[in-house]
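Repro:
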Amino acid sequence: MLVGEVLKTFGTDGGMIVKIDESVPENVEEPVFIRFDGLWVPFYFKSFEPHGKKVKIIFENMESEELAGELVGKKIFSQPEISCESGSEPSDLVGFTVVDSKLGKLGQVNEVFEYPGNPCIEITVNGKQVLIPLNGIKKLEYRKKLIHTTIPEGLLELD
């Protein structure tokens, strides 16, 4: 779910002004994620100061104007696997059908592996178990039990 968008830097301590999406509750859970080169990168707040529908934030380990400047224009999201339904857990994805944007339906989730920083789902494709990173998920449809993704090229050919 979209949390907001970084509008500009604020000060020299890594501060940023973020426009918060209207549908976001007052308390934003950590970590939040920003997508870089197709991967979700987690960020934790050092400070979070609400100002109406905007907030001034500083992320941990991003405490310079230069680093904050790299995030201007980026959208901030809540964690993909828990953003669609409150209280859901990655293990709740077992049994969901994985649909690739190019290949169509691939199979059902057999298991979820919660590797630190890189949780993966396991599906069986053509009799072979394949691990797919959760950070590649484009959309979750909980009611239909569907996971929409784009499988990285060559992933299904790995042994």
